[in-house]
Write a structure and sequence with these properties.
2 domains, DUF177 domain-containing protein, alpha+beta, 5 helices, two-stranded antiparallel ribbon, 179 residues, single chain
């Protein structure tokens, strides 16, 4: 999503509306399993050499359910404001203003960043039941609470029965003296 700064200055306030492909977010290290094209609507205002983009991002991403790991569609709307300037010292004074040193501004990285900030920590599926929970995987099993308690008690009992290998030679010490 590229913008010509000269065109924005000529037509300010400049309105825009576009559908953007952000499927690159699926390949990043995050929980997004799938994300459809997002709708970006907004306007740009100009004040001297500062360009202020106010825009909203609407879309749907697919995330894993925190309980069952099944796919959960998650609709989101993000309201964002980003400021850019062609004056380098102004960008250094204010960390919220991004410096641009070219005629074209690519807004896509800022759109992707705002979407990543919107990803929730957990989502839950409405259809999450004990029937569709993944109950085992590579090296793990899901246990019910009573099964867990039984396994824990069994492990504790085995731990009590174990003899420290350093003391194993003393295990029969008293049996030999009685003979």
């Amino acid at each position: 999503m590229n913008f010509s700064l000269q065109k924005i200055k000529r037509e300010a306030p400049y309105d825009f509306s576009e559908t953007v492909n952000v499927s690159g977010l699926e390949r990043m290290e995050n929980d997004i399993r799938e994300i459809n094209d997002v709708k970006v609507d907004g306007e740009v205002s100009v004040s001297g050499e500062t360009f202020t983009f106010r825009y909203s991002i609407k879309g749907t991403m697919t995330l894993p359910c925190a309980r069952t790991l099944v796919d959960v569609p998650y609709d989101f709307t993000v309201q964002a404001v980003d400021q850019f300037t062609t004056v380098e010292y102004a960008a250094k004074e204010d960390e919220d203003i991004h410096y641009i040193d070219q005629e074209l501004l690519d807004l896509l990285p800022y759109i992707e960043e705002n979407i990543l900030l919107e990803v929730p920590i957990r989502v839950y599926s409405d259809e999450a039941t004990m029937d569709n929970i993944i109950s085992e995987g590579n090296g793990w099993d899901l246990l019910q609470e009573d099964e867990h308690e039984d396994l824990k008690a069994k492990d504790e009992e085995e731990e009590k029965q174990k003899v420290d290998p350093r003391l194993s030679s003393l295990k029969n010490f008293f049996d030999d003296k009685n003979d």
